[in-house]
Every structure is written in structure tokens, then in C-alpha cells.
Amino acid sequence: MKQGSSVALITPMIPETGEVDYEGLKKLLQYHVDAGTSNLCILGTTGEASLLSMEERQKVLTIAVDMVKGKMPILVGVGTINPKAVREMTLQAIDVGCDAALVVTPYYVKPPQRGLIRHMTTTADLGLPVVMYNVPGRTGVNFSDESMAIAAEHDLIVGVKDATGDLSRVKRMRELVPDPNFLLYSGDDGSSTEFLLLGGDGCISVTANVAAKQMTDMVQAALEGKAEESKAINEKLAGLHKTLFIESSPMPCKWAAKQIGLTTSDYCRPPLDTFDHATFGSELEGALKQAGLL
Predict the structure, then answer these.
(1) Selected catalytic residue, list 2, 69, 84, 161
(2) Which tens digit of pLDDT belongs to each residue from 21-57?
(3) What is the pTM of this model?
(4) Which of 32, 204, 277, 288 is 20 to 30 A from 115 in CA distance terms?
(5) CA 93/CA 78 separation, integer angstroms
(6) Into how many domains does the chain fold?
(7) Is 133 in the active site?
(8) Is 268 buried (19+), middle (13-18) or exposed (0-12) by CB count in 10 A?
């Protein structure tokens, strides 16, 4: 895993059948290679991974490895409630040739901190580098800095994606995990610039689906300490950071990708739905125009 802008990739689908659009997936992967995206985060929440079968995951990962392995590290979402399922998905990712696993804290069941630590370290024991994912707004449980630091003592736990938007966590994690190779990724597009300027290593971004080059440039400027340049780029993206979450992700993102010609459909599998463009479309179109994408 590298510093920089990572895309939390959408999974394109065919509306008539609901099947994965594998040719559309190849087009998206090439878009990110061309844009210089630093890391590929595939089969996460934005990729509707909880709605894909193991057979579909196998094909998606095989295509990703064939197209981008060696060009950008491949981080695979393997998180769910059941540790047995996490193990199965992690072993699949190892077999296919992926580079790291993104492991979300088990949602809904609200494990104690010791359970969260064990969940991360047990997954790392399988042999694939692990990026821990803390997103209490979706899971209902907050992985504390102190607990993540304990888990990070494992040699194969290499970073954390923090989607809390709590910028004070950057300094605390740096103090608790002094290893300079431990990666701190923002999982909150709206505060990623500040996160980086405070010492973060990058972001795992929904916005990067439609503004890959801009996000890459913003992150690189921040990593180089060019605060004003980074903020200026981000100012044009601020509307996207907000409106891509105006309904549940990835519904707005898929609609935006279709609007700018990256995909041919904005279909999301139930229980999600297509984006309510009649209500929110003009606002999202405005954000795409502000970013120079329309």
C-alpha cells in the first residue's frame, strides 16, 4: 500500500439483469490507471460488496489483478459480521493475487474493543496485509485509537482508514503508533485535505470515482506540504464531497459516473435504488460543473 489517493471503486452493473458489467469494470480500471490513482480499493461499501456472490467477487478480483497488478496496489474489502466469511474472502483475495485486505469493524453486533482487536489480528494472521476500517456511522461501533494501536502491533496490520471525520485522531494515532510505515488514510472526503495536512498519508475516496486526477493532484500537493495548492484543488471538489452522499452511497456516485460518461448505467442492487435525480440531480450536476467535469 502506498501514500496517495485511493479510489473506493463502484461496481458497474447491467440494469436489465442486475449482473456485474465486467466490460464496464475494465473501463473504470483503465480510467484510474490513466489518472495515476495511487491505490485501488475494490469491493468495499461503495462497490456494493455485501450484495455480490463469491463467484462474482472472484471474477471482479481476477479482472482487477490482470489489469492493474503492479501498476497500483489492490486493496480488497473483506469485512462483514461473520469472521468465517471474512476468512473465506481474505483467502480468496490471497489466491487471486491481491495486495491487502480492508477489514471493517463488524457492524450491527457492536463487539467490545477486545473483540475488535481480535477480529483484526486474526484476519492478519492469514497472511495478507490488513488496513483496519473504522466507520462508526455505518457500523454502530467506534474502534478507539488505543485499541487500534494495540492491533497495529501485528506485523501485517499496515494502516487504518478512518471515516469519522475527527481530525484530532491523526495526531493521536501518530503518537500511539510511531512506526513511520503505518499508513493513515482518511475515509471522509470532506475532511481529507485537512487530514493530509495534519500528517495523514492519503485518502480512500468516493469522489475519486469521478474526479480521479483532481483527487490525485490534491493529495500529492498536500503530501508535498503545498497547503494552498491542495486547498485550491479541493475547493472545486467540495460540492462533490457533499452531494455524492446526498443519498446513500454509491447511488449518487453511480449517477454522476454515468453523467460524465464513465459508465452506461447508474443501477444499484436492492435494497439500494437508482439515484433520485428528480429531487437531487440539479445539485449534483452543479457540483460536477464546479469540479469541471461537465
Answers:
(1) 161
(2) 999 999 999 999 999 999 999 999 999 999 999 999 9
(3) 0.96
(4) 204
(5) 8
(6) 1
(7) yes
(8) buried
